[in-house]
């Protein structure tokens, strides 16, 4: 696979950083995660909400004093160009990162050290199950005042990795973080939605979670296209146990139904009707079947 590093398209093996780099030693950097979907004609590839991903990465890099080395439009075009150069004709994942490649001892963020790298890979399903069993993690989400989740920080994913490891060791598929205050935050790489009495509920991004692009898209689809009621508010742990439905969402996870939380089976234990409707509509949108949402899709070919 070709990747991109500071203005050049090179073989992934040649896109290397020093073992002394601050990116590697201290996790100094932020990243994005973008999906490209193969259209129904088997030819066209649609990048989902590329503009929103680029904007979020730009904001993250501002917080971290690692400004995007190229403009937003150029970054969007570079993502498309990378997919073209790799001749991608299947579902794919693209990972742009702004990192500090500098090989200096002390952890320090400096504007002049910002490096842009992008890699991509084929991706069908990130979570390979139709519905999952989750637990509430004993690890708390890193607060915005410590390692801001809204920056999608490379170093911050140690928090996610610890929670996923604990969940897997205990026989669960995924972990749900609480904030330090004990409110529901997010999964290791997904946002949380529950359905209670017909209302879709999701915690705001002030609960130490990422400003999610799938989450925001689903809120729009639910309220504008499907006429569902939505409420953004903090969620308590035990509300998860008595939810009628719950699902996780994200660029990787898409819409992933949750079967149980801490061994409490939700609803009828299957995929709930709201989750199914919204999940199906999301798939139609990302594959270009919904005309009025075509402006969310960036065609790679033609
Ligand atoms: N939370 C975390 C911690 C994530 O890493 C991700 C994946 N990007 C998400 C939520 C989902 O966000 P998005 O829909 O923007 O991919």
Automatic annotation (TrEMBL):
It holds the Pfam family Aminotran_4. Pathway: Amino-acid biosynthesis; L-valine biosynthesis; L-valine from pyruvate: step 4/4; Amino-acid biosynthesis; L-leucine biosynthesis; L-leucine from 3-methyl-2-oxobutanoate: step 4/4; Amino-acid biosynthesis; L-isoleucine biosynthesis; L-isoleucine from 2-oxobutanoate: step 4/4. Keywords: Amino-acid biosynthesis, Aminotransferase, Branched-chain amino acid biosynthesis, Pyridoxal phosphate, Transferase. InterPro entries: Aminotrans_IV, Aminotransferase-like, B_amino_transI, BCAT-like_C, BCAT-like_N, Class-IV_PLP-Dep_Aminotrnsfr. GO terms for molecular function: L-isoleucine-2-oxoglutarate transaminase activity; L-leucine-2-oxoglutarate transaminase activity; L-valine-2-oxoglutarate transaminase activity. NCBIfam families: ilvE_I, PRK06606.1. Acts on leucine, isoleucine and valine. This is Branched-chain-amino-acid aminotransferase. It comes from Enhygromyxa salina. The lineage of its organism: Bacteria, Pseudomonadati, Myxococcota, Polyangia, Nannocystales. The gene is ilvE.
């Amino acid at each position: 696979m070709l990747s991109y590093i500071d203005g050049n398209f090179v073989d992934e093996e040649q896109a290397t950083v020093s073992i002394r780099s601050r990116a590697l030693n201290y996790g100094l950097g932020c990243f994005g995660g973008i999906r490209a979907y193969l259209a129904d004609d088997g030819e066209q590839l649609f990048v989902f909400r590329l503009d929103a991903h680029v904007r979020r990465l730009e904001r993250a890099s501002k917080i971290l004093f690692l400004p995007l080395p190229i403009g937003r439009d150029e970054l969007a075009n570079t993502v498309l160009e990378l997919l073209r150069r790799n001749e991608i004709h299947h579902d794919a994942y693209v990972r742009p990162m702004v990192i500090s490649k500098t090989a200096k001892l002390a952890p320090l963020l400096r504007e002049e050290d910002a490096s842009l790298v992008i890699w991509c890979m084929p991706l069908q399903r990130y979570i390979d199950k139709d519905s999952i069993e989750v637990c509430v993690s004993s690890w708390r989400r890193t607060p915005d005042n410590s390692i801001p989740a809204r920056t999608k920080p490379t170093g911050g994913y140690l928090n996610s990795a610890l929670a996923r490891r604990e969940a897997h060791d205990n026989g669960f598929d995924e972990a749900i973080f609480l904030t330090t205050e004990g409110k529901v935050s997010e999964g290791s790489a997904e946002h949380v939605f529950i359905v209670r009495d017909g209302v879709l509920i999701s915690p705001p991004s002030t609960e130490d979670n990422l400003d999610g692009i799938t989450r925001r898209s689903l809120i729009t689809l639910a309220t504008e296209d499907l006429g569902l009621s939505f409420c953004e508010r903090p969620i308590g742990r035990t509300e998860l146990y008595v939810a009628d439905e719950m699902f996780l969402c994200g660029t990787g996870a898409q819409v992933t139904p949750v079967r149980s939380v801490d061994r409490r089976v939700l609803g009828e234990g299957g995929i709930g009707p709201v989750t199914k409707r919204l999940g199906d509509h999301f798939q139609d949108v990302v594959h270009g079947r919904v005309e009025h949402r075509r402006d969310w899709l960036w065609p790679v070919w033609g």
